[in-house]
Write a structure and sequence with these properties.
- The chain is built from 13 helices and 8 strands.
- The protein has about 300 residues and is an alpha+beta fold.
- The strands form 2 sheets. The protein has a 5-stranded antiparallel sheet with strand order 5-6-3-2-7, with no helix packed on it. A 3-stranded antiparallel sheet has the order 1-8-4, with no helix packed on it.
- β5 and β6 form a beta hairpin.
- The two termini are about 30 Å apart.
Length: about 300
């Protein structure tokens, strides 16, 4: 994003000043607060561009002149899924961007002396010396499926599996989960089946931050490899029923999952990440920048849907 465009939106500098004065004068007039706000937007725009660039290269490697309609549809669906999930991925390279963005903008109209002052994101898991785990969060007296086998579609059931942290809700009400990447101790990436936000979970006499998986019915759509399917099937106790498949339409699966209580998957704490803002005030600043940049990702998705989704 250019300095001129951003200043017109956020600062009180007159348009004539922007057009008639040099970069040093404009930066001085902009002030530290606006410069830092602009820095967070620049960091996130870099993150967005990096994700888009890598995905474009990946897709281009799969395209050739002999592509058939089925292959075309698969690529279109892959791109659609990527664009729909941009918001959950955009903070992946945030800390890298703090170091790399200045190399791209120094001496340009986007020059910003305050990027290096932006706090990097923190990994909430660094607070723990003990292992966290994927486990059942639904109370034992509640079921996932009715006697007829239909999924009980209630919020607390949809959040029936997840990772419970030791982060107390009190004092952390405004904490946002910006990016997650969770790995099992056996080296399996669990991230695809997880949602991307915290919720408050009651344990004993207090409430703590937890992150849930997607509803169990959706696991089969997001488990993107056989290793993940197998570890989840074993976790649920249905490995022998389905021979490693996550297809839970079998009535025996409903009964086993309803009665599931003891299993868990320990996280590899050295690989796993739950990225959050470093301070409470920084969380609010990031939220402003995020809303602005997410509007760009929405425009990209809207344009994609207009051109390709109905073809």
């Amino acid at each position: 994003m250019s300095l001129i465009f951003y200043l017109k939106k956020r600062s009180k500098i007159k348009e004539n000043d922007i057009e008639n004065h040099g970069i040093d004068h404009i930066l001085k007039a902009e002030g530290a607060y606006i410069s830092k706000a602009r820095a967070r937007v620049q960091i996130l725009m870099y993150c967005l561009a990096r994700l888009m660039n890598r995905k474009a290269k990946s897709l281009l490697a799969k395209i050739n002149y002999n592509i058939n309609p089925e292959e075309y549809d698969q690529l279109r669906l892959e791109l659609n899924s990527f664009l729909r999930n941009l918001d959950s991925q955009i903070f992946k390279h945030y800390n890298d961007a703090i170091d790399e963005v200045p190399l791209l903008i120094n001496g340009t109209l986007g020059h910003n002396n305050f990027i290096s002052t932006i706090y990097p994101l923190s990994n909430a898991l660094d607070r723990y010396s003990e292992d966290l785990r994927l486990e059942r969060l639904l109370p034992e007296d509640k079921d996932f499926f009715s006697a007829s086998g239909s999924f009980i579609d209630k919020k607390f059931v949809r959040r029936g599996f997840g990772v419970l942290t030791g982060i107390n809700r009190i004092g952390n009400e405004s904490m946002d989960l910006l990016y997650l990447d969770l790995w099992s101790k056996s080296g399996i990436r669990l991230t695809p089946i997880f949602s991307t936000s915290f919720f408050n979970y009651k344990k004993d006499n207090g409430y703590y931050k937890a992150v849930s998986t997607r509803p169990i019915l959706e696991w089969c759509h997001y488990a993107d490899n056989a290793y993940l399917e197998r570890i989840l099937s074993e976790f649920l106790g249905i490995l022998d029923i389905n021979h490693g498949s996550l297809d839970i339409t079998n009535k025996k699966c409903f009964e086993v999952i309803n009665n599931f209580n003891e299993g868990n998957i320990a996280l590899d704490m050295s690989l796993s990440k739950l990225l959050i803002a470093s301070t409470r005030s920084e969380s609010g600043h990031i939220r402003e920048a995020k809303d602005y940049v997410f509007s760009f990702s929405k425009l990209i998705l809207d344009e994609f849907n207009f051109k390709f989704a109905s073809t």
